[in-house]
């Protein structure tokens, strides 16, 4: 049985020292840690290494629950992975200790799952509401067209009259042949 720590920060500017010191102070034999940046998935790699490292009866320790992931869903997935290995989870802030198997500990993990589902549902709901509001306001959804509607009509006209080829139109408008082919098909719709 080993006590294994995991620490993470979300940005390069944040400092891991407080987390590392706290984990070392409670006797973590090994501490996995990472810093996240816009181009790095170091936290995810370190989390995977930690999950591969732990064994049955190990105790995974974090300073706070949010150190395990960026969303409630990812945190819950990590907790499940820890439990599948036969290990337990403990937070230093006292929110979770799955080692004791108490009804309260089980309920806390279940609540995390409920909140993860709630978070996902709220995101879907907000996204749907935003799309509906934009559509009602007459705003275009999706990518901006590369070629304006009036030019699209011109392209269709010259292509259907065989006055130009798809390749020539693609070069003229600096787009792909596929884009011009799609514009040509719009006329038959």
Q: Treating each run of at least 4 consecutive H or I residues as one helix, how many helices?
A: 7
What Rg do the Cα atoms give? 27 Å
SSE pattern: EHEHEHEHHHH
Question: What is the share of helical residues?
Answer: 40-55%
Shape: elongated
Q: Based on DSSP secondary structure assignment, what is the total number of beta strands? A: 4
Unreliable stretches (pLDDT < 50, length at least 5) are none
Sheet/helix structural class: alpha/beta
* Major sheet size, sense and barrel closure: 4 strands, parallel
What is the beta-strand fraction?
Answer: 5-15%
Q: Layout of SSEs?
A:
Elements: E1 3-9, H1 17-25, E2 30-35, H2 42-53, E3 59-62, H3 72-84, E4 88-91, H4 103-136, H5 149-160, H6 166-173, H7 177-186
Parallel strand pairs: 1-2, 1-3, 3-4
Quick structural summary:
With 189 residues, this protein is α/β, with parallel strands linked by helices.
What are the defining features of this structure?
7 helices; 4-stranded parallel beta sheet; alpha/beta
What does this protein structure show overall?
The chain is of the alpha/beta class and 189 residues long. 52% of the residues lie in helices and 11% in strands. The chain has 7 helices and 4 strands, in the order βαβαβαβαααα. It has helices at residues 17-25, 42-53, 72-84, 103-136, 149-160, 166-173, 177-186, and strands spanning 3-9, 30-35, 59-62, 88-91. Helix 3 (72-84) links the parallel strand 3 (59-62) and strand 4 (88-91). Helix 3 runs antiparallel to helix 4 (103-136), helix 5 (149-160) crosses helix 7 (177-186) and helix 6 (166-173) crosses helix 7 (177-186). The longest helix has 34 residues, at 103-136.
């Amino acid at each position: 049985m080993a006590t294994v720590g995991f620490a993470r920060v979300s940005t390069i500017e944040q400092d891991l020292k407080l987390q590392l010191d706290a984990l070392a102070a409670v006797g973590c034999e090994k501490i996995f840690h990472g810093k996240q940046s816009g181009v790095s998935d170091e936290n995810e790699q370190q989390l995977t290494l930690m999950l591969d490292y732990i064994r049955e009866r190990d105790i995974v320790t974090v300073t706070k629950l949010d150190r395990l992931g960026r969303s409630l869903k990812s945190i819950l997935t990590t907790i499940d992975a820890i439990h599948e290995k036969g290990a337990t989870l403990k937070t230093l802030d006292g929110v979770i200790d799955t080692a004791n198997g108490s009804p309260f500990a089980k309920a806390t993990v279940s609540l995390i799952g409920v909140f993860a589902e709630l978070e996902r549902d709220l995101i879907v709901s907000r996204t749907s509401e935003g799309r509906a509001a934009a559509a009602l306001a007459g705003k275009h959804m999706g990518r901006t067209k590369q070629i304006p509607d009036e030019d699209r009509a011109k392209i269709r006209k010259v292509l259907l009259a065989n006055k130009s080829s798809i390749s020539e139109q693609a070069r003229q408008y600096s787009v792909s042949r596929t884009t011009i082919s799609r514009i040509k098909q719009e006329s038959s719709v």
